[in-house]
Here is the input.
Amino acid sequence: MEFDSTFWVAIAFVVFIIAVFKPLRGAMTGALDDKIAQIRNEVEEAQRLREAAQSTLASYQLKQRDAAQEVEAMMEQAKAEAEAHRKGAEAALEAMLKRQEQSASEKIQQAEAAAVQEIRDRAVTVALAATVSLLEEKLSGASGDALIDDAIKTLPDRLH
Here is the structure.
């Protein structure tokens, strides 16, 4: 059995490929395994980062809700304080108005009393003037002198 040179070249080529492929195969599969491990590690790292980001997002969302609730509570407290201040101001205004009304009422009463007193004083002055005038008319002359003398005599009896 004789084979021609092409056959031996083909066999040599196959042996060469097998001889070269075996070490290359190990290097290629090792490189592919390394690359797969690297990609797997990157995917795992990306998953860890994603989970951390989701955890951070959830934490921030919780903080945002807490802050919103705190702001709402502060707003309610501010509204309650404003309402209390408003009621206090209304009460103070009402008290001030009552004091002013009472003061005005007292001033009116004082003015009325002063007016009544002034009218009485004028009435007394007019009555005294009329009495003086009337007495001067009636007590002038001899009949007036007799009345004055009689009053002087009865004065000591009236004092005791």
Q: What stands out?
A: The two ends are 192 Å apart (CA to CA). The mean pLDDT is 88.
